[in-house]
Amino acid sequence: MLKMTEPAIMPEIMPESISANARFIDLEGIAMIWRRDMVRLWRQRSRLLGAVARALVWLFALGFGLRGSLGSIAGFSYEQFVFPGVIAMTVIFSGLQSAISIVYDREFGFLKEVQVAPTPRSTLVIGKCLGGASSSTIQALIILIFAPFAAVHLTPLNILATFVATFVTALAISGLGVVIAMWITDFENFGTIQNFITLPLYMFSGAIFPTRQVPGWLHAVLLLNPLSYGVNAIRGALLGYEASSIPFNLGILLLFTVVMVGIAIFMSRKEV
């Protein structure tokens, strides 16, 4: 009887175990994580209001406050020049903020449930990156409503190009946020680390000042800053400013995203 029982049990266990370990991507699981972030964004509408309010404050404080001092840049008024930077600012703030839910889920046990589920560890990482990028892009593109205030002319083509550039930028920033969230184990420390990273990335990205004729050390910082490429891509898509470099900037952002996703997956496998 024992010999007849073992074959009956083994086929039921083996295929599930093998399929769970062998596959690298679980599309259904990724869609579930992504949908969860979208539901959270819809329910927490204060995030949308906060993103819009923050963008307006920076636009009016920088764009209209400094235009008299800086004048025009490459034929654009300063408020036109800084408007894509305001969109990039919304991306980095919301992109890193969306990753905080990983720390929250770790403390309340949801992360443990995902980790013990018969799905690869890449499911959580890819799902969080896509969810964070989607929510960040939605919040950032709402800012386009205020483009007329900055004298930025919108067309269907540059809106589409801006959407692509914003999403790729948000994907890279979300990947960075997931790596930070995997590293941080305490909920309170995430806010400190986020602020420590957010402001330098934004200030040294070329979002609020032209990057030509900057000192050598600052040029090196700009090259190492992933948000610099996002700002350049969004500015090129929206204004046509050095638009020929858009493919290069997007390529760097995608490469950075792949590296961040790989690091996050490795870190997730180290979690107990």
From TrEMBL:
<protein>
    <recommendedName>
        <fullName>Transport permease protein</fullName>
    </recommendedName>
</protein>
<keyword id="KW-1133">Transmembrane helix</keyword>
<dbReference type="Pfam" id="PF01061">
    <property type="entry name" value="ABC2_membrane"/>
</dbReference>
<dbReference type="InterPro" id="IPR000412">
    <property type="entry name" value="ABC_2_transport"/>
</dbReference>
<feature type="transmembrane region" description="Helical">
    <location>
        <begin position="81"/>
        <end position="104"/>
    </location>
</feature>
<feature type="transmembrane region" description="Helical">
    <location>
        <begin position="246"/>
        <end position="267"/>
    </location>
</feature>
<feature type="transmembrane region" description="Helical">
    <location>
        <begin position="48"/>
        <end position="69"/>
    </location>
</feature>
<feature type="transmembrane region" description="Helical">
    <location>
        <begin position="159"/>
        <end position="184"/>
    </location>
</feature>
<keyword id="KW-0812">Transmembrane</keyword>
<dbReference type="InterPro" id="IPR013525">
    <property type="entry name" value="ABC2_TM"/>
</dbReference>
<keyword id="KW-0472">Membrane</keyword>
<dbReference type="InterPro" id="IPR051784">
    <property type="entry name" value="Nod_factor_ABC_transporter"/>
</dbReference>
<comment type="similarity">
    <text>Belongs to the ABC-2 integral membrane protein family.</text>
</comment>
<keyword id="KW-0813">Transport</keyword>
<keyword id="KW-1003">Cell membrane</keyword>
<feature type="transmembrane region" description="Helical">
    <location>
        <begin position="196"/>
        <end position="214"/>
    </location>
</feature>
<dbReference type="InterPro" id="IPR047817">
    <property type="entry name" value="ABC2_TM_bact-type"/>
</dbReference>
<dbReference type="GO" id="GO:0043190">
    <property type="term" value="C:ATP-binding cassette (ABC) transporter complex"/>
</dbReference>
<feature type="transmembrane region" description="Helical">
    <location>
        <begin position="125"/>
        <end position="147"/>
    </location>
</feature>
<dbReference type="GO" id="GO:0140359">
    <property type="term" value="F:ABC-type transporter activity"/>
</dbReference>
<feature type="domain" description="ABC transmembrane type-2">
    <location>
        <begin position="46"/>
        <end position="271"/>
    </location>
</feature>
